[in-house]
Amino acid sequence: MTCQENLLQRLSGNNLIKKIREINMNSFLTNSPFHGRPYSGVRKNMAKLFQSRKNWRGKKIIDLCCGDGTSTYILRKMGAKVLPYDLTSERCELKEKPKYINVQKKFPIKDNSVDIVIFQEVIEHLPNQLFTLEEIYRILKPRGEVIITTPSKSSIGAKLSYLFFESEHHRFTPWGSVDAVWGSKNKKEKYYGHLWLIGIQQLNALGKIAGFKKIKIHKTEISSTSIQLFIIFYPLILFFSLKALFKDLKKMPKNSKYYNEKIEQFKLNISLNTLLSKYTFVSLYK
Question: Residues 270, 272, 273, 274: is their CA dihedral positive or negative?
Fold first, then answer.
């Protein structure tokens, strides 16, 4: 073997080792760091969002109601400074347990101290959603962001489910007084099922009341039910949305706060991301 061939073989080997290391390092973006299973649903969407951004290093992040700690783990691997909080710690797989927090009470976190808050699958459990959003707003730095996920109440499929039985899915009955009341063993505090599922319009309105300036919808998987219903219902949604919009816009001059908000509501209501996505997945910006 010539010197040139030997050098090429070494370089090829080094590149292969480097590639294997990169795959191993990034496996936490596709598979659970705790169980090794591929992500699905909300976690898959969160992992995609985390991967799509390159500026996590040094960010101060609160993983609010962190669950098993997957988001905390991923973001720490990407260089962020993450503090996990939760009402209970039973499900958390991290080595250190999350700090205790009840998000319906004042947070034990300083004003204007956090870059980003992760708030996954929690807001639908809260009777006082505005209070919690106000607390999140308080702890965020100027131009800070809260990333919120919740089951969709605004997709076409979800709208039809509410028409049938006021349920979040047409295959199930609504949450009731028995199955929706849970409890914390350690703190003896009640918390709840999806009694307060929130739609995109209400989430946007409560966010604005809390002080947030802007909402951004992130893409998720498409709901197969919503796709099937799209051709039938989208023309009706568009027609009645336009009709309601024109009626309301007559009341106020152009470029007033009221006028601009009604335009924003209309855009959210006819957005394909709103109507077809399986989950509500948004960012609110301070």
Answer: positive
Among the listed residues 149, 146, 269, the one whose alpha carbon sits nearest the alpha carbon of residue 221: 149
Q: Is 90 exceeded by the pLDDT of residue 9?
A: no
Q: Give the integer Cα–Cα distance in Å for 102 and 143.
A: 25
pLDDT digits (tens, 9 = 90+) for 199-241: 999 999 999 999 999 999 998 999 999 999 999 999 999 999 9
Q: What is the DSSP string of 191-205?
A: EESSTT---HHHHHH
Q: pLDDT digit string (tens) for 17-72?
A: 444 444 444 688 999 999 889 999 999 999 999 999 989 999 999 999 999 999 99
Taking the C-alpha atoms of residue 199 and residue 277, their distance in angstroms, rounded to an integer, is 13
**What single string gives the DSSP state of each residue in 99-148?**
EE--TTS--SS-TT-EEEEEEES-GGG-S-HHHHHHHHHHHEEEEEEEEE
- Tell me: pLDDT of 186 over 80: no
Tokens of 70: 């997957």
Question: Angle of helix 41-52 relative to helix 70-77, nearest 10 degrees?
Answer: 20
What is the 8-class DSSP label of residue 221?
P
Query: How far is it, in rounded angstroms, from Cα 283 to Cα 36?
Result: 28
**Angle, CA 44 vertex, CA 40 and CA 45 arms, to 5°:** 130
